Each structure stands twice: as structure tokens, then as C-alpha cells.
Amino acid sequence: MGSCTATTTASTTNGRYLERRRATVDLSAIPVAIPVAICVALLLASISAPSMAAQDDDAAERRVTFTIRNRFLPSPGTESITWTTLIPTTIPDRQLVHRIDYSHRPQRIFRRHGNTYATFELKEPRGPVVIDITVTADLLRGDLRTVSARRVRSDDADAGRDLTSPPDDVPYEVTPSDYSGRSDTGANDASPEGTTTSDDASAESLRLDAWLVSEKYLEADDTAIREAIDAIDQPEPLDRVRAILALVGERLRYVGFQEESLGAARAFEERRGDCSEFADLFVAACRAAGLPARTCDGLLIAPVPTGDTARHKWAEVYLTEVGWVEVDPLRIAKRTATLHRMPNEYLRLSHLRNDRTLNGYEVAYYRYRGEPIEFENELLLHDPAELDDRSDQERRRGSPESDR
Questions:
Q1: What is the pLDDT of residue 319?
Q2: Domain for residue 118, yes or no?
Q3: Dihedrals phi, psi of 102, to nearest 5 degrees
Q4: CATH number of the domain to which 206 belongs
Q5: How many domains does the chain divide into?
Q6: Burial of 380 (0-12, 13-18, 19+ CB in 10 A)
Q7: Can you say whether the dihedral through the CA atoms of 38, 97, 1, 334 is positive or negative?
Q8: Nearest alpha-carbon partner for 229 in 213, 245, 210, 216
Q9: pLDDT confidence of 37, banded at 50, 70, 90?
Q10: How does 101-121 read in b/e, with b if 16+ C-beta sit within 10 Å?
Q11: Are residues 218 and 116 located together in one domain of the fold?
Q12: % of the chain with per-residue pLDDT over 70
């Protein structure tokens, strides 16, 4: 696998991760006069994959194990590093996380707005520090074909029962990411366990309304986007989704990684983008058409071409008949996936386009005090034989810090 090297400075504050084509980031250009700098933690720019058993592309469930290896290279005058990163979590009908192992104990693990985060504190670091996060999870398909079949089976099982709770795939948290003045410690921090469900249709509608708002990068109220949506004469929701996918594919030209995040409105105007712009425009257009939709930020658990990365952005749209359906607008435009069928290699980390917990950055961020640091990381995929050896070794000497 190939990798790239890049340099960035503290002036890079657009919230976009540059790692989609980069393996190593040199932050030494940050002025020493800035005592605390918040820098994007560039994630997963290279992927190393051993020989793995061929996966059944038609399988609805796929077991994967991978390690996110993060290297922090402090300067002699670095006083501390604080790093907060998204951690994979179990999501009904999307993924089942069996185990997470940490080579260093996190200072804090917490949930907010449906996401799970871990914060690590490195005090007076001397020399390189490596933090490995190893995850074992089952990936579950979320495309239209799979979700439709799942709903049919669910309807058959529920026949004759009086269901008083809303569907499981309706989000519990109200989480439009501009929050309209709410703070990160306000009512939006409620977890599913702290939320009372009922058969009140208005409660379900409220949760879905959270995914209809216009927000930064997802400008559903943009005049040009709304005019394009008004021209779509498709009364059925699924037909509108197909028409929006066609609109996105025709309007945008894939130009590879872009350092600047354009958002839906600029992408529509400038007719270009990478996976973020394709997902942003699809979601904004769906919301403009009255279809609840949200972006998905995560990883492609598969070997990645040279110069590319495991990081990816796709989307979900809510259809009343089946619930949330995963859609990959870029891959559909490139004809490597369809609305009905997507490869089973998506691991979701977040559905928030503008994550205030991460200061507006994606996936992770770090800040340091004192002299600048360098940061490197990679994604390692493990084969079954390697996992068996690791499990045997852990049983003999005791397992490391883990979250089961």
C-alpha cells in the first residue's frame, strides 16, 4: 500500500480531515508562540491489510477486526497532549461491536448525541507514544434490499401484536447539529436510556424532524438546491430518492480529495466534490424534498487503493415503509454500488455533520500545550489466524484494557 506525507498548520481550521490521502502529518510549522493549538487529528490515511479470507459479498453479516494505530511524536518542549476520538459503538441493524481493546487506558469514555468518544491525556510525553485501539465487530448491511427484507421479517414476527413503541431505527436523540443555541451539556445530551418512548405519533415526528433542518454544509434552504428539487415531479418517496441520486451524479464531478469542505450549496454551484460533497448534497436535497436524511462518517473496512484512505462519508435516508436506508452517493455515481445493493464494508462512527463535541472536526481532534507535535496513524486489518494467536497470548498473560 502506498502512503503520502503532508504538512499543515494551525490555520487549517475548516473541520475537514486531510487524511483521506495522507498518512503522516507534520505540525512543526505551527508557531511556538501559540501555547495551545487545536489541530485536526488526521485519521487513517494508510491501510495495511494482510492476506484475508475472501468475504461473501452477498452476506448480510461480516465479522471484522482491525486496529487503529495512532503515533504521537512530541517535541522536547511539549507539556501535554489531549486527544479525543470517536469510538465504534453498536448500532441496531448496522453493526454489532463485540470488543474494543485499548493499549492505553482512556482518561474518559462517554456518550453524547448517539456517539461514543474516548479521551486520552498524555502528560509530559517524552519520546513517541503509540495508542492502539483494536475493534472486533460484525458489519450488517443497511442497503434498501437488506432493510426491506428485514422489515418484512419483522412485520411477520409482529403480526397480531399491539406495538406501542416507535420503530427502533428512529433516533432517540434530537440531534440537528446546529442545536439552535443549545449547549453540549443541555437537553440534547439525553441518551436512549433516559428517553421515554410512547405511541404518540408526534414524538416520532419530532425525532425525524431533527433530520430535516438546514445546517452548515447541509444547506437544505439553499435557493438553487430547492429549485432543482421543485423540478422533480415524483410523488413517491422512493422515486424522489432515485431522482435525487441522479441529480447528484449528474451535477457533481468527482475530483478526488479536497482539503476544503465545500458543503452542499457550494458543491452544487461549483459542480465538484469528493465523498463529502456527494453525501452533503444528497442529504441537503433529501431534506429540501421533505425526506429525513443524515450523513454517515466512518470507515471502509477493506483494502484501499494506493493514495486513498479508509475514511469515507456516505448517507442515510428515512423511508416510512422500511426505516433508515444507507446510501453511498459517490459510489452510486461511480456505478460501484446501487441504491438496492452496497458492499458490506461500512463501519459507522458518527451521523453528525457538525460535531461540537469535537469542536467541529470529524472523527477526532487533539490539542497540545507547549511545543508542537507530529501525529501519524494507520488502519491495520487482521486475518483470522492472527486473531487466534492474539487470543491465545492474552489468555496466557491476561488481556489488556478492554471494553467488552
A1: 95
A2: yes
A3: -115, 130
A4: 3.10.620.30
A5: 2
A6: middle
A7: negative
A8: 245
A9: very low
A10: bbebebeeeeebbbbbbbebe
A11: no
A12: 67
